[in-house]
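User: Some background: our group keeps a shared notebook of sequences we're curious about, and every so often someone picks one and asks for a predicted structure to add to the entry. Today it's my turn. The entry only has the sequence so far, pasted here. Could you supply the structure so I can complete it?
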Amino acid sequence: MRLAFLDTSIINQCQKNLLTGCELRALLKKKNLIPILGPHTTFELSKDYLNGEDRVKKFFKILLELDPEYTCKRSFMYEMEYRKIKKIIAAEDFLAPPEFKEKIRRRVLNYANGSFSSENFIRARQDSYDTMRKGWDKTKMVTIPGIRGATFSDYVKYCFQNPSAMVQGLVKRFSAITEEAVSVDESDAALILNNLNTMPALRCFIYTQLYIEFKFAASGDVPAEDRFTDGLQLIEASYCAVYVTHDLRHAKYINEINPNIEVVLWDDLAPKKNPIKEKICQIANLLLRIFQMA
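Assistant: Of course. Here's the predicted structure to add to the notebook entry:
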């Protein structure tokens, strides 16, 4: 059995196709896959609450039945990888510790029952992402000769051949990304970059940052919000063998960020379409839209 990270699009598809969490678990089991989600994935699902409760309750009822494993926070992944490379600890564990897993499960249960007590938290998190995107200033766009004709691989190669900016970036941001648990100097940052292929989460973090920079430099446009949030889910999935998604655009660049993860699409996982059930889904979705407009 292999751990399979499910992104938000999979839970969306289950809701859209009236597939229960138990049915999803059975589909995954047929492919020898164990479902796992990350804390950020649950946040992405919960923020739909700002647009109405009904769909969010359905999302979390699916999660309640699915009963997946959960990853630990990204900040803890980064901290463990740093401590391992510094030989402070012998091995890292990316699964959520029992108390954190229980906290997520309680939130899933509350949301499935329609108890939304975290509206301020959800709004604050969304505001933080909006602020992060506004930080991308077109006047400070990365200048690289021939960038418009370059590939992402070209850009990565360029950055690693000229690592000073990445070293300074890690020195500046490492305390923040580990929630103040660890700070690094230039020699530590260089050590991380030189051993990046042994540090799955930090590798994904750096490569997602480079990917966003590349898209920004190539087009001059601030990347869409989902470019930021998709990257956070990829980091949470960095220790998994499989990444399951219905987002075809997202699927195209997953292996550019993490070449060691297998991508499985919803269409490869979902049961063959039942015309009657499909018609029921269409009617149910139509009634939901009518109810929301009323």
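Suggested note for the entry: Residues 2-293 form one domain. The chain has 15 helices and five strands.
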